[in-house]
Q: What sequence folds into this?
């Protein structure tokens, strides 16, 4: 019951996400927000210009449900440049409202009442509510810090005749680890001969460090046959507020995904799609420098924090960095993040909300998609706090 109206919440235990809570508190406290994952620097002005032009040209009415073909062709070109494979822009690519909608649509397309989806903790928070809204349940397999490796044997033990989906995220938010080719091989072997689809959240596909390359399900012929691969121009073009993402899947899976998409958002803002298409046509390499760009930011922040008491873990990808405050406090991460907010005036993201049953750990997630000045200021806040709080 809510008030006097008979109403049963479908997600009674779901509150506001940790990202929104921390960002809201950061505003209230006047704290520096190094928690939530969004850039604080401008987009490429040429991308902005492209949007102004498309609006002026009058491309302001409904886009086709599956996305404007000009953009889907650019996406196919990008995929070919990245993974040396051909995808059919007409039958295999759907433009969505950010990666988030692609995740949601894929889950609704596959999961029915009583079905199971396997996800890995620490898990991005959009997966479980979508599975539950579809009537399914998540089997959560923990990854142990600080390595955060896949426990494939545990996955095998949890496969049942109700397993319909395995959700993998690489590069992984929030652990900043990446899947190896061997992980894909094991995943393919586990799914083989079973009615299991793969949902591959690859929104950080272009942000891998130290010379690593991304092991996409699209580059694995067997996995590709049963996978929804999810991407985001929010990440790739530093434009999280544009909310443009896409899903790549074989024609049969794409057809099912589109049945959900057309009654969910129907289609994505037309001028934004044309603007991105035009921009990628003019600057097809716009995304190729992302790893180097973020690696420099990782190294800057990690270098400033090393030895301070906030010990950086070595991030393999994503635009985050984990720091271990264990040398300063044994408090749990929620309490410690709250204390940093109040005393150091800095917002960070604790890791335990990403787990169903969090292990004992003293890790916080920082976002490196910030101007160098912001990263330096964040390091200063943290180092000043650490200096005033010698080891327990
Ligand atoms: C792992 C992961 N998946 C999906 C998303 C959602 O992407 P989008 O902002 O394009 O909806 C995010 C955003 O932070 C993310 O970190």
A:
């Amino acid at each position: 019951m809510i008030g006097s109206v008979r109403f049963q919440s479908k997600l009674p235990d779901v509150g506001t996400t940790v990202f929104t809570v921390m960002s809201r508190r950061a505003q209230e406290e006047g704290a520096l927000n190094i928690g939530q994952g969004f850039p604080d620097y401008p987009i490429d002005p040429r991308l902005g210009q492209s949007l102004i032009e498309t609006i002026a040209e009058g491309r302001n009415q409904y886009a086709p449900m599956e996305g404007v073909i000009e953009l889907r062709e650019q996406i196919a070109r990008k995929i070919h440049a990245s993974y040396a494979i051909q995808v059919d822009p007409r039958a295999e690519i759907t433009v969505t409202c950010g990666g988030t909608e692609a995740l949601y649509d894929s889950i609704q397309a596959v999961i029915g009442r009583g079905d199971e989806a396997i996800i890995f903790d620490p898990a991005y928070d959009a997966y479980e509510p979508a599975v539950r809204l579809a009537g399914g349940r998540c089997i959560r397999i923990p990854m142990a810090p600080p390595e955060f490796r896949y426990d494939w044997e545990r996955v095998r033990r949890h496969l049942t005749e109700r397993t319909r989906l395995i959700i993998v995220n690489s590069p992984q938010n929030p652990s900043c680890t990446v899947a190896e080719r061997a992980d894909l091989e094991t995943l393919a072997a586990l799914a083989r001969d079973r009615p299991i689809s793969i949902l591959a959240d690859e929104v950080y596909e272009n942000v891998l460090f130290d010379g690593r390359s991304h092991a996409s399900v699209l580059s694995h012929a067997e996995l590709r046959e049963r996978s929804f691969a999810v991407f985001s121009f929010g990440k790739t073009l530093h434009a999280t507020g544009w909310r443009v993402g896409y899903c790549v899947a074989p024609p049969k899976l794409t057809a099912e995904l589109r049945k959900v998409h057309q009654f969910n958002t129907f289609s994505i803002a037309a001028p934004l799609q044309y603007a991105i298409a035009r921009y990628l046509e003019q600057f097809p390499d716009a995304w190729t420098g992302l790893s180097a760009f973020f690696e420099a930011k990782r190294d800057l922040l990690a270098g400033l924090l090393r030895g301070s008491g906030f010990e950086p873990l070595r991030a393999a990808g994503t635009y985050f960095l984990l720091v271990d405050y264990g040398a300063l406090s044994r408090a749990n991460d929620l309490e410690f993040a709250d204390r940093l907010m109040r005393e150091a005036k800095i917002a960070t993201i604790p890791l335990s909300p990403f787990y169903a049953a969090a292990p004992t750990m003293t890790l916080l997630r920082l976002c490196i998609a910030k101007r160098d000045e912001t990263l330096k200021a964040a390091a200063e806040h943290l180092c000043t706090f650490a200096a005033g709080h010698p080891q327990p």
About this structure: The two ends are 47 Å apart (CA to CA).
